[in-house]
């Protein structure tokens, strides 16, 4: 490896990992994705310890199944799909109570920079988790998932459509727009509460 691994793209690292397990490559991918995977897992589990366990299990799958990544989408989209499927599988084995707690956290494409700024400001202020927790009661799970995938994780509408298995781009856009409208109401309520 002539270049520093930090200079490699995610897709280059994934290809190298698929060719043969390398501890340095695993460590680099882990550093790049540990926070995102943990947040995704926490969005499903709603429990810190459970999210840590799920995160470890997801990384084991990523490292052992890297050959399954076909390169048709960004590596981050594949990682999200692995995390989502693992969490859903774990929750499916649990009681109905756990299934009701499901609130996937995934991305939405930024069409209006103001929304991304508001989301980042909420995260910096430490209120993002509180807002997302409140959003679970006012948004459908797929709306919340599309919203987070787009604004927090930076997935495009096309990537969200594939990830959420929408029949067309309009379906993903509608989920994002509905979620954005509901998020606007939530943030307005947060601002009034702080005044």
Write up this protein.
With 195 residues, the chain is mainly α. It has two domains: 5-100, Rna Polymerase Sigma Factor, Chain: A (Orthogonal Bundle), CATH 1.10.1740.10; 113-194, Winged helix-like DNA-binding domain superfamily/Winged helix DNA-binding domain (Arc Repressor Mutant, subunit A, Orthogonal Bundle). The protein is 72% helix and 0% strand. The protein is built from ten helices and no strands. Helix 1 (10-19) packs across helix 2, helix 2 crosses helix 3 and helix 7 (128-138) crosses helix 10. The longest helix is centred in the last third of the chain and has 26 residues, at 169-194. 32% of the residues are buried. Mean pLDDT is 76; it is low at 95-112.
Descriptive keywords:
2 domains, 10 helices, 195 residues, Arc Repressor Mutant, subunit A, Rna Polymerase Sigma Factor, Chain: A
């Amino acid at each position: 490896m002539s270049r520093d691994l930090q200079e490699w793209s995610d897709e280059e690292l994934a290809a190298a990992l698929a060719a043969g397990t390398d501890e340095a490559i695993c460590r680099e991918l882990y550093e790049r994705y540990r926070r995102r995977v943990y947040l995704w897992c926490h969005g499903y589990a709603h429990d810190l310890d459970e999210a840590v366990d799920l995160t470890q299990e997801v990384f084991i799958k990523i490292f052992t199944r890297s050959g399954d990544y076909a390169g048709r989408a960004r590596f981050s989209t594949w990682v999200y799909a692995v995390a989502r499927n693992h969490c859903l599988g774990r929750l499916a084995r649990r009681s109905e109570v756990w299934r009701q707690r499901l609130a996937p956290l995934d991305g939405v494409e930024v069409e209006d920079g103001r929304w991304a700024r508001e989301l980042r400001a909420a995260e910096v202020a430490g209120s993002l988790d509180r807002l997302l927790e409140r959003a679970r009661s006012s948004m459908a799970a797929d709306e919340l998932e599309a919203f987070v995938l787009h604004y927090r994780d930076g997935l495009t509408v096309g990537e969200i459509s594939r990830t959420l298995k929408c029949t067309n781009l309009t379906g993903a856009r509608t989920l994002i727009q509905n979620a954005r409208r509901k998020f606007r109401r939530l943030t307005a309520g947060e601002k009034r509460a702080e005044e």
